[in-house]
Specification:
two-stranded antiparallel ribbon, globular, alpha/beta, 35% helix, 293 residues
């Protein structure tokens, strides 16, 4: 197994002006077949945005051709490790590039993912329920949108309970299925039940800023679900879900405002799969002080 080298930021939180503090914890590489740019380009953009680092979280390989069109193949896993290593070695001085992965939760694949997550020194594992991939639709779509959405949130809770993931990505992604008739109030009891189960696991959830570009144009999750998460003390990690370098750190200042309005005073990130919590007020100061755009 290759050794991964990561640069370290020596800034501290004790300076009059906070050092760089925040990571963008969700981004991809061309190995997923629908992203562009080398990790070093994502790092350069993250440095301009005032971030401390980025976490590469490309879509995990899956066995037997599962969802093969939108993820690295199993035989490309070592190529992924090499890409992240190159990104770390070519990052701006003091800027970190951490190894992560976005892994699909799909019933029956737990054993595969458990083995995969042990193959490299990951800092962070995102769990995703991708309702729109053909395999998920084939298994769970029954011409009933309400039932399909309920199933999605049950799987979201199951993914937290599996113990495989540090954080759950874009946790209300299913609102983009038939976005025109998405009704949060109608789904609230189902979401509440799922969040109760997730809160019991202490798994974090993501605030994903790429939702603004989806069929239902708001963050994933939206403000109402974020408030429900805050009521349950579920930690939140920020991710841009960048598939191009120009989106690294996109709308993070606005996302911090959304988090505070929802009831949060801290945002989280992961190192060596251990959660770290940062005060939102300091994170905001850090981004404003170090952002170059």
């Amino acid at each position: 197994m290759m050794t991964l080298h990561f640069s370290l930021d020596t800034d501290t939180m004790n300076d009059a002006v906070p050092g760089r503090l925040l990571f963008d914890s969700h981004m991809h590489t061309p190995l997923c077949r629908h992203a562009y740019g080398h990790p070093s380009e994502y790092a350069a953009r993250g440095h301009r945005a005032g971030l401390r680092g980025v976490v590469m979280t490309c879509h995990s390989p899956m066995p037997d051709g599962f969802s093969h069109a939108v993820r690295m193949a199993p035989e490309e896993f070592e190529d992924y490790l090499a890409l992240v290593t190159e990104g770390a070695e070519n990052a701006p001085e003091g800027f970190e590039v951490r190894l992560g992965m976005e892994s699909d939760y799909f019933p029956g694949m737990e054993g595969w993912l458990s083995g995969l997550h042990k193959r490299a020194p990951f800092h962070y594992i995102l769990g995703s329920v991708h309702w729109h991939i053909p395999e998920y639709l084939d298994a769970f779509w029954r011409e009933d949108m309400a039932a399909f959405r309920r199933q999605y949130f049950w799987h979201l809770a199951e993914s937290a309970e599996s113990g495989l993931f540090d954080c759950l990505a874009h946790p209300d992604l299913v609102k983009n299925a038939s976005a025109g008739d998405w009704d949060f109030v109608e789904m609230r009891p189902v979401i509440a039940e799922a969040l109760d189960r997730i809160a019991a696991t202490r798994v974090a959830m993501e605030l994903n800023t790429s939702g603004a570009f989806k069929a239902f144009p708001e963050t994933n999750p939206g403000p109402a679900m974020l408030a429900m998460m805050a009521e349950r003390d579920i930690p939140v990690v920020l991710g841009s879900d960048s598939h191009t370098p120009d989106r690294v750190g996109d709308s993070f200042l606005a996302a911090l405002d959304i988090l505070e309005t929802a009831g949060y005073d801290a945002v989280s990130q992961f190192e060596n799969r251990k959660r770290q919590d940062l005060p939102i007020s300091l994170v905001r100061e850090s981004l404003l002080a170090h952002g170059l755009d």
